[in-house]
């Protein structure tokens, strides 16, 4: 009978270890899924924040001046002002 009880001890030990391993493995799977879900939620919030920032920046941009439609730099104090191009542009209009 001692061999039969030894087999039963091994059998129940393997069963207990299998249950423990299954519990541990399920916990690691759930933890990784929760982490992935948190990452997706964070990315979604970041996208929403970036869209809001872009919309805010777009709404706060000054309207384009109608005088600049001609493409001429009409600011005489600007270092990029080109008098010749300005005069030619006025002649074409």
Structure report:
The relative contact order is 0.05. The chain is built from 2 helices and no strands. It has helices spanning 2-60, 83-92. 74% of the residues lie in helices and 0% in strands. The chain starts with a helix and ends with a helix. With 93 residues, it is mainly alpha-helical. The model is unreliable at 65-69 (pLDDT under 50). The protein is rod-shaped.
Could you provide a short overview of the structure?
With 93 residues, this protein is an all-alpha fold.
> Taking all residues together, what is the mean pLDDT?
86
Report the C-alpha radius of gyration, rounded: 37 Å
**Discrete helix count:** 2
Percent helix, as a range, is over 70%
**Helix vs. strand class:** mainly alpha
The outline comes out as: rod-shaped
Which regions are unreliable across 5 or more consecutive residues at pLDDT < 50? 65-69
Tell me the span between the first and last alpha carbons.
113 Å
- Relative strand content: under 5%
Topology as a string of helices (H) and strands (E): HH
Number of strands: 0
Largest pleated sheet: none
